[in-house]
């Protein structure tokens, strides 16, 4: 009745033990988008120094800015460079143009600058420009051939980036299907990517999903917060966050076309911290919760239900605000950092500090970033607050036990099974989640149903891991 999940595999447990250490090194699966539609960005060298102080392992550029590429030399940070949609016709029609592009934008900097991927075009398929769509694959082939000719084939990959709108069906995730309008073009692209080992790059945004369904339970689902979950009617899998559901919908769509071995890369995802008064969802609290919980999810190495045991390479949008972007105010409020290199809000990316991430959902826009709150001094154990309902505690229990912790001790016969109550089992699981995920204050939030305490809740024979630090 209480803890219904069994011991996780040794692989999951070993991956989670790594989170007991602080994240002092860059992590290859955590990337950031570095857009430049702005007139107030710091110098490239300052940005390179900032990135080296974080756990960000990769940067995606929308072009191939020489100053930025040079500034990232010898940092080890992976770099994605882009050929714009406007470059596609020339790259497609003239192999020499592709050779010149590689000779200008890759060869002078590689390998000191760790260029790993070239994206040819951005969301071309859903532009509905048939001429551009038909030229996309020839352009990618010519760029690949240019790389091959200078012995960089396999070292620098070639891909393109898609909007989630390439899917005509995504709910439930097991029914994921590409729009038939795009399927012929996608078959050619995917065969090219399979042959050359490049990732299928997609832009999932739970933020936009929430805007179209602004119920409180949807917000919790989108922000990786404890929630009742959503069961996939096709395979019975319970999803506890929108990110996994969206990525697995893409996995299902790829599988249905016979491309099970093409890997997925999340080229963009993020949440704005501010927006117009009529926009639903932008706020500092929600942005901190989404990005902070996403980073914790990636660090857990749990993966998604259809791709367990590893984290999809994910590029968070964005490094800085882009103050010249058109559209609603939220379009100009995705930056993790300000132009003066200070954090907009803390999601735990700094190598020298822990994150402070209260993740209370908010449905109203916030007009300005907040400063990080002081860290609590009691960091021993995470327990439920008094008066929290069994229904909420059960949701917390299910959430914690499905995120890579060993809930065996609260199974029948386990050291912490008695007392056999939702409250007792949830208390153990919530604390173990907090300890395993890095002991940051935001790991003991559970939508404000948990509290940190310096009083050891252990009781014979049940030992709660943790203690004051």
Automatic annotation (TrEMBL):
Residues 1-20 form the signal peptide. InterPro entries: GH, Glyco_hydro_17, Glyco_hydro_17_plant, X8. It is found in: Secreted. The keyword Nuclease does not apply. Residues 351-370 have a biased composition (Low complexity). It catalyses: Hydrolysis of (1->3)-beta-D-glucosidic linkages in (1->3)-beta-D-glucans. Its EC number is 3.2.1.39. It comes from the Eukaryota. One of its GO terms (cellular component) is extracellular region. This is glucan endo-1,3-beta-D-glucosidase.
């Amino acid at each position: 009745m209480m803890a219904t999940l069994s011991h996780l595999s040794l692989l999951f447990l070993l991956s989670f033990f790594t989170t007991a250490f602080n994240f002092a090194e860059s992590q290859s699966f955590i990337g950031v988008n570095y857009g430049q539609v702005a007139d107030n960005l710091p110098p490239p060298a300052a940005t390179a120094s900032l990135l080296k102080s974080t756990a960000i392992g990769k940067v995606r550029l929308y072009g191939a800015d020489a100053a930025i590429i040079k500034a990232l030399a010898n940092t080890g940070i992976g770099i994605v460079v882009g050929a714009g949609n406007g470059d596609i016709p020339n790259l497609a029609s003239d192999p020499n143009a592709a050779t010149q592009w590689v000779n200008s934008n890759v060869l002078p900097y590689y390998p000191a600058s760790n260029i790993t991927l070239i994206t040819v075009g951005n969301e071309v398929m859903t532009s509905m420009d048939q001429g551009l769509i038909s030229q996309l694959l020839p352009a990618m082939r010519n760029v690949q051939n240019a790389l091959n000719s200078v012995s960089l084939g396999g070292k620098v990959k070639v891909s393109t980036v898609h909007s989630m709108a390439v899917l005509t069906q995504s709910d439930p995730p097991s029914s994921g299907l590409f729009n038939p309008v795009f399927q012929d073009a996608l078959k050619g692209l995917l065969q090219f990517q399979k042959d050359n080992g490049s990732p299928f790059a997609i832009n999932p945004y739970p933020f936009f999903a929430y805007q179209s369904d602004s119920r409180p339970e949807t917000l919790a689902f989108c922000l990786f917060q404890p929630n009742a979950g959503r069961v996939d009617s096709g395979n019975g899998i319970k999803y506890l966050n929108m990110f996994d559901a969206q990525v697995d919908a893409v996995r299902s769509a790829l599988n249905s076309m016979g491309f099970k071995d093409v890997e997925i890369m999340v080229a963009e995802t993020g949440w704005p911290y501010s927006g117009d008064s009529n926009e639903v969802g932008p706020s500092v609290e929600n942005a901190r919760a989404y990005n902070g919980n996403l980073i914790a999810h990636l660090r857990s190495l749990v993966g998604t239900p259809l791709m367990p045991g590893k984290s999809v390479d994910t590029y968070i949008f964005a490094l800085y605000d882009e103050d010249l972007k058109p559209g609603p105010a939220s379009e100009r409020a995705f930056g993790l950092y300000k132009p003066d290199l200070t954090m907009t809000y803390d999601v735990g990316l700094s190598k020298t500090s822990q994150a402070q991430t209260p993740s209370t959902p908010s449905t109203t826009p916030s007009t300005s970033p907040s400063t990080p709150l002081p860290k609590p001094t009691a960091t021993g154990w995470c327990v439920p607050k008094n008066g929290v309902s069994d229904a909420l505690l059960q949701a917390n229990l299910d959430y914690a036990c499905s995120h890579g912790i060993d809930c065996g001790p609260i199974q029948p016969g386990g050291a912490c099974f008695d007392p056999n109550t939702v409250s007792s089992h949830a208390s153990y699981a919530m604390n173990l989640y907090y300890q395993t995920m890095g002991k940051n204050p935001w790991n003991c939030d559970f939508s404000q149903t948990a509290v940190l305490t310096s009083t050891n809740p252990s009781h014979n024979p049940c030992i709660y891991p943790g203690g004051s630090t």
